[in-house]
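Onboarding guide, step 5: your first structure request.
Type a short instruction followed by the sequence, for example:

Predict the 3D structure of this protein.
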Amino acid sequence: MTTVTRAYVSRIAGLTVFDPNGDRVGKVRDVLVALRVGSAAPRALGLIVEVVARRRIFCPMGRVTGLDATSVMLASGTVNLKRFEQRAGETLVLGELLDRRVTIEDGGRPATVVDAAIEQTRTGDWVLSRLAVQEPGRLGRRGQLHQLAWDEVGGLALPETGQSAETLIATYRELNAADAAHALQELPIKRRHEVAEAMDDPRLADVLGELPEAEQITILGTLEERRAADVLEEMDPDDAADLLAELSTLDRDRLLELMEPDEAEPVRQLLKYSEDTAGGIMTSEPVILSPDATIAEALARVRTPELSPALASQVYVCRPPSATPTGRYLGLAHIQRLLREPPSTLVSGVLDDLDPLRPEAPLAEVTRYFATYNLVAAPVVDAQGRLVGAVSVDDVLDHLLPDDWRERSRRG
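The system replies with C-alpha cells like these:
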C-alpha cells in the first residue's frame, strides 16, 4: 500500500477498511473532526466505519497505518464495536460540514463547501487542512471552484444556519434505499430533516419506506402538506397505506384528498383491510396481463426497474379490466416456467392453478401458504373472483418481525 498523506473525505467515504491480516472490518462512512477556536485547522479524530448489521463504530485516526485510493489499513484487528455516538464539539465532515455557506477571506466572496481534505502532519496527527469551495454560479452555470487552506475560509465556526444538503445527498446517490435510510438516521435531527427536504420525491419515497414508522411520521410531518401528498404518491401503495394508517383520521383524509385520485384510490382500498391480513399487507400493483398476452410481453413487463424481485417472479392473468380490482382472475405464471417456453406462446397456456389467498386471510395462514408452496409472491383474490393484489415475501417478513426491527438493525 502506497500511503497518502492527504485525502479528500468524499473519496475516502466508501473505502473498505482492513485489519493487518487483510480481513475486512467494514466501510468508511464519514470522518469525525473537532473544530477549534480561531483559525486553527480542526483535528481529525477518527473514521466512522460501518461494520456488520450496519452498525457504525468509531475508529481513532491513530489506528490508521495506511490510506490509499482503494482501502484503509488499521494497526490492529481489535476494534471497539460499541455503536458510535457523537459528542458535543464533534463534527461529521460529510454529515455536517458539506454544503455549509462560507466566505472566502480574500475578497469576502460567498461560497459553499463541496469537499474537505484531511492531512497527516509531521507528528503523525491528522488535521482537516484544506477545503474545496464553490462560488455561486450565474445563469445556471457552476461557479468557480477553489481549493483553499482552512484559514482562508471564514464562517465555519458559526451555527449551521442556512446549510443546504445538495452535496451530502450526492454522497448518498450510490446507496440503495435501505442504506441511505440508515445513513439518514445517523445524522443530527436538524440535518436529517434538511436532507429529507432536499431529496426529490421518488428518492424520498424510497428512503421513507425503509425507515421505522415513527421516523416516517416525523419526517412526513416536517413537509408541507402538498409535498407530503406528492411523496405518498411516489410510494408503493402498500407502504403509503401503512404510513397513513399510523396518522390520525383527520390527517389521513386530508392527505388522501391532496393526492391525485388515481393514486389515492388504491391506497384507500388497502386501508379497508386489517393490517394483520393478506389484504392489509398486499400491494395493489402486481404485474397483470390479459389472456391474449404472449410470453415475450410478460418478460418485457417484469424487466421494469422499479419492480421488486419478488413481484417480478410471476405474472397474473385476468379478464379486463387489468387494474385491481380486475376482471375474473384466471391464474398465475412463474417467470422460471416462462423462460422455458417459446416467446410467442400465450401466457394463458402455461398458468398455475394454485388456489389464491383471500383478503381476509390472517397472517399465520399467509405464512403457512408461502412455506407450503415455496413462494416469494402470492395472488390475493376477493369473493367475486377478482384479483385485488399480491403479497410478497418481504411484506410477510416485515409484519412477522418486531415493529422496531429496522431500529434494532441500525443499532446492531
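Each response can be followed by summary notes, for example: The two ends are 31 Å apart (CA to CA).
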